[in-house]
């Protein structure tokens, strides 16, 4: 006879990090802040209050975006630094999204900010279907603590300054090269533990390359 | 009134559908003026009654939103009343007729006269999202024309108006160029409203249910009405003001008042007209404000 597990047993190590407490309400709140981030590029939006924690090494803010955006229709690329069993388990349990085998297949990608040189690997859409371009969620220690970047374009009245930590090493010139093919291009959301900054493809951002 | 119907998900659509629409909206914002295809659902009202706008609103709306719905500027027409009730019942949200108090405005064929702000989102109901459709029936061709920014045919269409009639006669759904790139149908708003779209601080979202397209104009984005150097774009003007509030700067509707040729011109935006009358403005046919006319 198989013994029934007792109630005071410590939780099995393979229980995924929790999802939204109220999935309908919290996904809507998260979406509206993401929509504001992409509508007003460069302006930080608060997003850290939606989930208590995410699967290591994702921030709770990044995990909230995953729960809001991903499902069976969206292949997701996990950059090696963020590809852990905890993250895979979290995504397969809560989102059911396929994990892309190659970056070029992904609708969404999760990247650490250090992986900026990977930009060219993602699908930028086609001139007929620019909406099929990937959206990159880039984790950074801070969306306000880096070298200043000046942005102009749709969503910005005159000029918007922002400062993403870690986005250097040629990141800005690489992004400019990818987005020169507008309407093709990559839509980027920088995520830190509390805030997000949106950077859609049509926005010109001039940063200081380190 | 704000007790939502049980038995439906919040705002009627299921979460998987909302996610799909939300992803389409984000791509629409990223490529201003480009029509994003989406898997439009059957809604509990016929095509032509705002099925696209309703799906966009349902994907965006939250419990803390205040919703305003207008049909040709009016809050009290059938389409506006039924859509407002739909979201009261399925989402339990607060509603208003006052433009300034709304955080989310769904509109059929008008932009409110009051200037919209950053805290607001304007959702348009769109019957025909493709501005080139009357010149080119094939979707494969119009898609290629947008991809190559090959818009000569649209200028020819406007030029033919000038050649035949001496001026561009298109008075509603007047084509615009968004951020210097895509030519976009602004939905059948009067061309009077076109200048309001230019660099509007509020986000503008467009939903076409039958054609299953979503597109967007982000805040502070250039929206130019197409024209020619020698035939510049002009908006409608009227020789008289609103008969009720005296406004000379708003879009006026003609209302037939009897069967002997009587008519009056009144503000199409009912909230704008009401606010002006409450503030003491009055037109030639106005009863004193607050008195119910017999």
Strand order of the largest sheet of chain A: 1-8-7-4-3-2
Order of helices and strands of chain A: HEHEHEEEEHEEE
The dominant shape of chain B is globular
Structural class of chain B: alpha/beta
Question: For the terminal residues of chain B, how far apart are their CA atoms?
Answer: 29 Å
Average pLDDT figure of chain B: 95
User: Which residues of chain B form runs of ≥5 with pLDDT under 50?
Assistant: none
**Unreliable stretches of chain A, pLDDT < 50, 5 or more residues?**
none
Main sheet of chain A, how many strands, which sense, barrel? 6 strands, mixed
Oligomer: heterodimer
Gross morphology of chain A: globular
Number of strands of chain B: 12
Side-by-side strand order of the widest sheet of chain B = 1-9-8-5-4-2-3
**Topology-level CATH name of chain A:** Rossmann fold
Q: What is the number of strand segments of chain A?
A: 9
Number of helices, counting only DSSP H or I runs of 4 residues or more of chain B = 7
Fraction of residues in H or I helices of chain A: 10-25%
Task: Summarize this entry quickly.
The complex is a heterodimer of chains A (210) and B (294). Chain A is of the alpha/beta class and 210 residues long.
